[in-house]
């Protein structure tokens, strides 16, 4: 079934001609559905060399041109405005650099790059060329994260002292071929994957931080990097963040736990937007992003707890903000980027420091 929207973003606004590089989980579940559902964009091209994925892409987006590689997309740069890189992490820096030099605006999936210096170089290049560059830190629009943001703004917790955040899954086998072969130099491992989200969210909530402790382990057979990680951050604001990411977790802890001078908040469950799309839903559906009431968090203190409903998840906001930025003049516009790449560069610096500390402890 085709899920394409009508291109165009209003009178006098031509559609942003967009290509998606890669049609694995990232391109198929996150980028293509969000782009196709937003009339400010036209999904003009998709790259994947996998025959099954080409068939899926053709069925869902019949107007999109299918090519085999990201290089084939770059050859079409004259007919495009924007490229979205949903490719393995080690390709992000060279492909983003080539796309910027080809005159395209660029969305890079997380992690922004494998090394912070590469991310900074891409930022400098985009500024020099006057191109829009942003990073798809989509979990800034998780419903539970938006709920925590609102809770902090309300002051209901008083002065927050501790933030605990987890992404834990039961995935005893490495699911993707590139992940099975990837080392830390390739951007492999759960710290680069789920850890990128957890660190980014902690910085968004509580500001700059330093790594005070890190544990990195490889538990699964064949895992070349890490799949069981703990990182402790000390924020300049005084908050301590404890972050867990684990791919071999038989019993999952709370997604969030916050402790403050006036109360606490505990939340289980994971944002439903990804599984909803995987199950065949779309971002324009009324049910999209709505979490079941049974996953409401607990607010208060033991013996005095109230249920706090979860905000609706809002991944489409990323592409709405990006379209506004591009259509308002791109880098000359005062409108904000959906994600300033300076933030993901700071995340990469903390990942590098965590690896240094873990290696020293080993």
Protein described:
The protein has 362 residues and is an alpha/beta fold. Helices cover 33% and strands 22% of the residues. The chain is built from 11 helices and 14 strands. The strands form 2 sheets. The chain has an 8-stranded mixed beta sheet. A hairpin with a 2-residue loop joins β13 (297-301) and β14 (304-308). α5 (116-129) packs antiparallel against α11 (342-361). The model is unreliable at 1-10 (pLDDT under 50).
User: What is the 3D form?
Assistant: globular
The largest sheet is: 8 strands, mixed
Mean pLDDT score, rounded? 94
Strand-residue proportion: 15-25%
The gist of it:
With 362 residues, the chain is of the alpha/beta class.
Kindly list the characteristics that best describe this protein.
single chain; 362 residues; alpha/beta; 6-stranded parallel sheet; 33% helix; globular
Write the layout of secondary structure elements.
Blueprint: E1 16-21, H1 25-37, E2 41-47, H2 51-60, E3 65-67, H3 70-74, E4 82-85, H4 92-101, E5 105-109, H5 116-129, E6 133-136, H6 143-154, E7 160-168, H7 177-181, H8 194-206, E8 209-217, E9 228-235, E10 240-246, E11 256-260, E12 264-267, H9 273-278, E13 297-301, E14 304-308, H10 316-327, H11 342-361
Parallel strand pairs: 1-2, 1-4, 2-3, 4-5, 5-6, 7-10
Antiparallel strand pairs: 7-11, 8-9, 9-10, 11-12, 12-13, 13-14
């Amino acid at each position: 079934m085709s899920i394409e929207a009508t291109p165009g973003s209003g009178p006098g606004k031509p559609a942003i001609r967009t290509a998606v590089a890669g049609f694995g989980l990232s391109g198929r579940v996150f980028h293509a559905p969000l782009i196709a559902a937003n009339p400010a964009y036209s999904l003009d091209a998709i790259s994947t060399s996998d025959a099954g994925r080409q068939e899926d892409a053709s069925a869902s987006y019949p107007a999109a041109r299918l090519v085999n590689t990201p290089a084939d997309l770059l050859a079409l740069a004259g007919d495009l405005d924007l490229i979205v890189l949903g490719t393995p992490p080690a390709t992000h820096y060279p492909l983003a650099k080539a796309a910027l030099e080809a005159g395209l605006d660029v969305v890079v999936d997380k992690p922004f790059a494998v090394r912070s210096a590469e991310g900074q170089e891409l930022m400098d290049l985009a500024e020099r060329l006057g191109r829009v560059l942003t990073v798809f830190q989509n979990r800034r629009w998780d419903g539970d994260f938006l709920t925590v943001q609102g809770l902090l703004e309300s002051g209901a917790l008083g002065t927050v002292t501790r933030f605990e955040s987890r992404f834990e899954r039961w995935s005893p086998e490495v699911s993707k071929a590139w992940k099975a072969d990837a080392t830390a130099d390739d951007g492999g491992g759960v710290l680069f994957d789920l850890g990128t989200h957890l660190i980014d969210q902690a910085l968004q909530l509580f500001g700059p931080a330093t790594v005070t402790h890190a544990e990195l382990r490889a538990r699964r057979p064949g895992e070349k990097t890490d799949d069981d990680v703990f990182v402790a951050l000390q924020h300049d604001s005084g908050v301590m963040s404890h972050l867990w990411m684990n791919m071999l977790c038989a019993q999952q802890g709370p997604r969030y736990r916050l402790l403050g001078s006036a109360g606490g908040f505990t939340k289980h469950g994971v944002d439903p937007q990804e599984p909803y799309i995987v199950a065949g839903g779309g971002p324009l559906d009324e049910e999209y992003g709505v979490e079941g009431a049974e996953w409401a968090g607990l607010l208060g203190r033991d013996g005095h707890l109230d249920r706090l409903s979860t905000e609706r998840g809002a991944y489409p906001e990323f592409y709405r903000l990006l379209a506004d930025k591009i259509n308002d003049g791109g880098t000359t516009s005062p409108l904000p980027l959906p994600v300033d790449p300076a933030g993901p560069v700071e995340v990469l610096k903390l990942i590098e420091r965590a690896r240094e500390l873990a290696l020293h402890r080993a």
